[in-house]
Design a protein that fits this description.
The complex is a heterodimer of chains A (937) and B (267).
Chain A (H helix, E strand, L loop, with lengths): L1 H31 L6 H18 L4 E3 L2 E4 L1 H26 L7 H23 L14 H4 L5 E4 L2 E4 H23 L1 H11 L1 H6 L4 H27 L4 H17 L5 H26 L6 H21 L1 H5 L24 H25 L2 H26 L7 H16 L19 H23 L4 H20 L2 H4 L5 E2 L9 H24 L1 H11 L1 H6 L4 H27 L1 E2 L9 H14 L4 H21 L4 H11 L2 H4 L4 H28 L10 H32 L17 H27 L6 H21 L7 H31 L13 H16 L5 H34 L2 H12 L21
Antiparallel strand pairs in A: 1-2, 3-4, 5-6
Chain B lengths: L2 H7 L9 E10 L2 E11 L4 E5 L6 H9 L6 E6 L2 E2 L5 H7 L1 E3 L12 H13 L4 H5 L7 H14 L14 H14 L4 E5 L7 H18 L2 E6 L2 H7 L2 E6 L2 E7 H6 L1 H8 L4
Parallel strand pairs in B: 3-8, 3-9, 6-7, 7-8
Antiparallel strand pairs in B: 1-2, 1-4, 4-5, 9-10
Helix pairs in contact in B: 4-6, 4-7, 6-7, 7-8
The chains are: A mainly alpha (937), B alpha/beta (267).
Chain lengths: 937, 267
């Protein structure tokens, strides 16, 4: 009894924190359909603000000589009532408003991005700041005028702030319950999630309602954060993780519906968490300080969550409610490959093998050892990413346990290769003999697939978000209970993973990885093309109709889940071999959180195609290098960028790669149509002056960079030749050959830059003649001046190498180009409006990306100085990406200008529709839009 | 005729019924959508189910097909108790259906719809076949799809994605897809809703032609009394979840209770 009271006293305050965060989660899920994983991070920010305010201790309200509000009260007010609602409002405005009508996948992925980014942002904001204990455990009392620090129940001391935490929590629960049940706003909040559009039809401003609910729930999270800080007396990420897990579990127990049940669950979880170690010790004799007890403690919430998810009937039967007005939305765009014309396919067929051959050859001969290692690492990641392509891209389910499946593969392979058998399942199977590591990988894949199937059988009956939560629980549980076992991971020492005999060097291992990747990728493509892919497409189109023709969606999903687990297992094995060790502890190889980052990455870049997975993996590696090694930024920045990148997912759920591909294909179709018309007009001598063929402009801009890359290639080859034959290289150039400031670079690039500037000038003049704004020159010159200033400033602050004059000179074209990239589309808009077109062929918004790219790329390029060509290739990679973005932008602007000159409005509208959906119904006569299967013309 | 005598008309089930649903009751949190509905369809027979909006017609359909679980009652199909079978298993037993709101596989062409259905019917699509690149439609699958395109008369649209088709054409695609499953019983859920008079007539014609050729049974849920009365031989009338009449079409349409409850000023 005595012990029970002490569990209560120590457990309940934490329980209150879990309950508050969980209530916030339930609140936003109920009102906006967003499951906010990032809530704990929001709570954390509020806690940090509170600590900051108390520390600074400058604000207090003194009236008539009496202190009415002390520093703590001020901190509380600022953190909970000002900062937290603002964060909520900001998130709503920036992020969630745009996706009110999106499906649950879009909402979930964006939140996952936030979940990855927010803690990192907080961490960076807090670096250099010690985790500050708040002085004494009496944060709230002054506000209530309670001076004593606590009271006694029997022999137990109860601090006042513990009591206040509990009282405040109960108060919040009651207030929220009242709001929901008895106010009009509460009713509107509940209605908005069903169908924002429907609610709007009923005359309710659904944006206001959703903003309100975000602010409300964020305030609740903020309160939780402040209480947490005063309880835990520290701000560190382990506490944060605990809160995340416990609060999600409590929210799940409340079925994401009931605030009272959620509250109760949070409190009980807090209590149980406190009681568990003692119970284990007294009932099962598990020493509370032993490893097992430590591992078991965090598994409690996972177990609770998993059991509730799998056993509760009401969750299993609940399907995501569909918006009754969802039919208003245009259908999702078709995949890019359905737009491909025969010409494009023919070109691909020739270029693609050449590209692969060139890539492999470069990797074997040209690229430096370090980069071979990095790219190989990227490829192993890409294999694991393909598992996400299968489960998310094909089956439409979001699994956060892919890193765990990879871990199952990796650890199994490692243990087998070291003769340790399959841990836990069959430890003595190898009887001490070393198994070839590739066999180990295969067995690992099988183990992962079995575990996946075992998990999927109960879990896949859950739809959507619940499956995602179950995978998260599963991942965390496996990580804690299985990976942490010494017989699996050899404790902190980790396991050394050998590479196969025939592929132990980096280059040969690259070949092996590439082969494995190619096999897996081909399998993925075959699945998409085959019956399974067709069935999945049918299910995506209409699950009811698919069932009505006899397709068993559940079985298909379970099969795919197992298959995706197997692919993840293979990827995990390859990752293990690539890094040559697997470990848990401080730098774990397969932490569950990584699985979340993976999903965010793949889905943002494109989850439905193989190239999406490859781009995500290679992009991850290159960006890691670029931001970490080359620019020496905090490692967290990469996560923040990728996390925030997920926000673009809301706009392009098919993925950025997919979107860009489709866009450029459509752009080409339009170009061809205009070209044909221009030819006809030219034959009749009616071609207006404003028309310039796009290829001429693109060629002018591309020729400089093109020649430069050719030069680099020749140079590298001669160097390679020199290295192989031991002679001196033919082309000798010292110093910074790839630096923006180098003369070599400039003599290639300058003509193109000059061409670009002239083109911008002329285009602006031409547009100026057609009722556009005439201040274009001013904008360009202003941009140039700003660019020069920026270059000079960066140089003088030590951010850029080279002389001040150099940097200023580089800044001139960069600044001018960046400004014009936005300005010219704006001009086109003006002209289109003057012509009475409802829709402009291009909008200034489309200029933002090239503008940002210009500045970022010039900055990066200036900062990264390289010496020998092989090391320079990654720089070239960045440069190529930049060049392509710019050429696209130039082509788009010139295309729009041409359309203004000789096109008609309908065309631009059809094109705009074409971006949203394929142009099937009435293709404009001249546009050779592909037959959807890419077949018959 | 009193109401009770009409009700007794449908009971007891005639032996050899293809579909026999008895005592189907479904409640949605307190609202009784269906209350002990009995219905049977003989092989090769065309039966209509009519009723005002909200009478529970679509709910009844969904109970038949397993998209909803009734609280009580049983469904027998071809002598087998299918009350607890999942939707896709029922489909394989020989249920074909269309939907009131179009449920097409967006992104697929008309031909692909039929090919996918044929593959699902055969149940020969295996993951390992995909992995060995053996999943291409075989010649006879192609031929079957081609024939169905001819039957529903969508030759011109065969290779267009279904999003680009009009509602009427979409209904034809659904009909073709349902026929591709080679159903013993075709369930049509308001096939004429959203169609104009001409399209409705052409749909009814096609249906009649195909039905005489393949001799499957049809259960037709409709609003359009004219279309129903031209097609079906027997008629059931639902009102507020209760079966208020059942019998040969003309008898039912002439019935007082039915006129009062549903047809009222329409006939």
């Amino acid at each position: 009894m005595n012990q029970f009271v002490s569990w209560l006293i120590e457990g309940i305050p934490y329980g209150c924190v879990y309950a508050l965060v969980a209530i916030g989660i339930v609140l936003t899920y109920k009102t906006t359909g967003v499951f906010n994983f990032a809530f704990a991070a929001q709570a954390f920010i509020a806690g940090a603000v509170y600590v900051e305010m108390v520390e600074v201790d400058q604000h207090r309200l003194v009236l008539f000589g009496h202190e009415i509000l002390g520093a703590r009260a001020f901190g509380l007010i600022v953190a909970v009532l000002i900062v937290s609602p603002l964060i909520g409002l900001l998130l709503d405005r920036v992020l969630f408003r745009a996706m009110r009508t999106s499906g649950w996948q879009v909402k979930l992925v964006s939140v996952l991005g936030l979940f990855v980014a927010l803690p990192e942002i907080t961490k960076i904001a807090l670096t250099g700041r010690q985790p500050v204990p708040v002085t004494a455990r009496s944060s709230i009392p002054p506000m209530f005028g309670i001076s004593s620090a606590g009271f006694n129940i029997g022999t137990h001391f109860v601090a006042w702030d513990f009591t206040m935490a509990a009282i405040l929590t109960v108060f919040v629960v009651i207030v929220l319950g009242l709001i929901f049940r008895y106010t009009a706003t509460g009713l509107q909040m509940r209605a908005v999630v069903e169908s924002p559009r429907m609610v709007e039809l009923a005359g309710v401003d659904s944006e206001r309602v959703s903003a309100l609910s975000w602010m409300l729930s964020s305030t609740v999270a903020g309160l939780a954060g402040v209480i947490l800080v005063t309880l835990a007396q520290t701000l560190d990420s382990t506490v944060l993780t605990l809160v995340v897990i416990f609060s999600i579990a409590a929210a799940v127990v409340g079925r994401l519906q009931s605030i009272p049940i959620t509250f109760a669950a949070g409190v009980v979880l807090g209590f149980a968490d406190r009681a568990l170690p003692d119970v284990l010790q007294s009932w099962f004799g598990v020493n509370s300080s032993s490893e097992l007890a430590k591992d078991l403690r965090p598994t409690l919430p996972f177990l609770v969550m998993f059991l509730v998810l799998v056993l509760a009937r009401s969750i299993r039967q609940r399907r995501e409610s569909a918006d009754p007005l969802a039919g208003v939305d245009p259908p999702p765009p078709a995949m890019a490959h359905t737009y491909k014309t025969p010409e494009i396919e023919r070109t691909t067929r020739i270029v693609f093998p050449l590209f692969i051959f060139g890539f492999v050859a470069a990797m074997l001969c040209l690229v430096s050892g370090l980069w071979v290692f990095r790219i190989t690492d990227g490829l192993t990641l890409a294999i694991a990413f393909l598992s996400i392509t299968i489960i998310t891209g094909f089956a439409g389910q979001i699994s956060l346990a892919q890193a765990t499946f990879a871990g199952l593969g990796g650890f199994t392979a490692a243990n087998l290769a070291l003769g340790r058998g399959i841990p836990i399942i069959a430890p003595h199977i190898t009887s001490g003999n070393h198994v070839p590591v590739l066999v180990g990988v295969a067995v690992g894949a099988v183990v992962a697939a079995l575990m996946g199937a075992l998990f999927a059988l109960p879990a896949l009956r859950l739809g959507g978000i619940y499956l995602t939560l179950a995978t998260l629980a599963f991942g965390l549980m496996v990580e804690q209970v299985i990976f942490n076992r010494p017989e699996v991971s050899n404790s902190a020492a980790g396991l050394h993973v050998p590479r196969p005999e025939f592929a132990h060097t980096d280059r040969t291992f690259f070949l092996l990885t590439f082969a494995v990747f190619a096999l897996v990728a081909y399998a993925v493509i075959l699945i998409r093309r085959g019956t399974t892919g067709r069935f999945l497409m049918a299910i995506r189109g209409s699950e009811t109709a698919a069932a009505s023709i006899g397709i068993n969606a559940t079985r298909l999903r379970i099969t795919l889940f197992a298959l995706s687990a197997a692919v993840a297992g293979i990827g995990g094995g390859m990752i293990a071999m690539s890094g040559q060790d697997v470990r848990v502890g401080d730098a774990p190889t397969f932490p569950t959180i990584t699985g979340i980052v993976w999903v965010v990455l793949v889905v943002t870049l494109g989850s439905r195609t193989v190239d999406g997975a490859v781009n995500a993996a290679i992009g991850f590696v290159v960006f890691n290098w670029l931001l970490g090694d080359a620019l020496r930024l905090e490692p967290g920045i990469v996560l923040i960028l990728f996390g925030l990148g997920a926000i673009t997912y809301a706009r392009h759920p098919e993925g950025i790669v997919e979107y860009q591909t489709r866009r450029s294909i459509l752009e080409m179709a339009r170009g061809r149509a205009l070209g044909a018309r221009a030819k006809a007009l030219a034959a009749a001598h009616q071609l207006p002056d404003a028309y310039t063929p796009v290829w001429r402009v693109v060629l002018g801009c591309a020729i400089g960079p093109g020649l430069y890359f050719a030069y680099l290639l020749v140079r590298s080859i001669t160097q390679l030749h020199a290295r192989l034959t031991g002679t001196a290289p033919y082309v000798r150039m010292g110093g910074h050959w790839a630096d923006v400031h180098s003369t070599t670079l400039l003599c290639f690039i300058l003509p193109s830059v000059a061409f670009l500037l002239v083109w911008m000038w002329r285009t602006d003049t031409a547009l100026g003649r057609q009722h556009a704004d005439r201040r274009g020159k001013l904008v360009m010159i202003g941009g140039a001046a700003l660019g020069a200033l920026l270059g000079w400033l960066l140089q003088s602050s030590g951010d850029l190498p080279g002389s001040a004059l150099d940097c200023a000179l580089v800044g001139i074209p960069a600044g001018a180009a960046a400004c014009t990239a936005v300005w010219l589309p704006y001009q086109v808009q003006l002209v289109a409006r003057a012509k009475g077109w409802l829709e402009s062929p291009i909008t200034w918004r489309e200029g933002r990306i090239p503008a940002a790219f210009t500045l970022a790329a010039v900055y990066l390029y200036s900062r990264v100085t390289t010496d020998t060509p092989p090391n320079g290739w990654p720089v070239c990679f960045v440069a190529v990406v930049f060049t392509i973005v710019w050429l696209q932008s130039v082509a788009a602007i010139q295309g729009a200008v041409n359309e203004l000159a000789i096109g008609n409005e309908g065309e631009s509208q059809r094109r705009a529709e074409g971006l949203g959906q394929p142009e099937f119904d009435t293709p404009p006569a001249e546009v050779p839009v592909a037959a959807p299967t890419g077949g018959a013309e | 005729m009193t109401e009770t005598s009409i009700r007794s008309f449908s009971r007891p089930t005639r032996p050899g019924a293809l579909l026999d649903a008895s005592g189907i009751t479904k409640r949605f949190s307190g609202i009784t959508a269906l209350n002990g509905v009995d219905l049977d369809v003989q092989p090769g027979e065309m039966v209509g189910l009519i009723g005002p909006n909200g009478a529970g017609k679509t709910t009844f359909f969904n109970c038949l097909l397993g998209m909803l679980r009734p609280e009580s009652g049983t469904v027998h199909f071809d002598g087998q108790d299918i009350t607890r079978l999942p939707v896709h298993r029922r489909a394989r037993l020989g249920f074909g259906r269309t939907f009131q709101r179009l449920e097409l596989f967006s992104g697929m062409t008309v031909r692909e719809h039929f090919l996918v259905t044929e593959r699902a019917r055969r149940g020969t699509g295996r993951l390992w076949k995909d992995l060995l690149n053996l999943a291409k439609p075989s010649a006879d699958e192609q031929a079957l799809a081609e024939r169905m395109i001819d039957i529903v008369g969508l030759q011109a649209e065969a290779d267009k994605p279904v999003e680009s088709l009009s509602l009427g054409r979409g209904r034809l695609v659904e009909l073709g897809r349902a026929l591709m499953t080679q159903p013993k019983l075709l369930l049509l859920d308001e096939p004429s809703s959203g169609l104009d008079v001409r399209e409705t007539a052409s749909l009814a014609d096609k249906l009649a032609v195909v039905q005489t050729e393949h001799e499957f049974a049809v259960l037709l849920v409709e609003h359009d009394v004219e279309m129903v009365s031209n097609l079906v031989t027997r008629l059931y009338v639902l009102d507020f979840g209760e079966l208020i009449a059942a019998g040969p079409t003309q008898d039912v349409l002439g019935d007082e209770a039915v006129r009062k409850a549903y047809l009222g000023d329409m006939v």
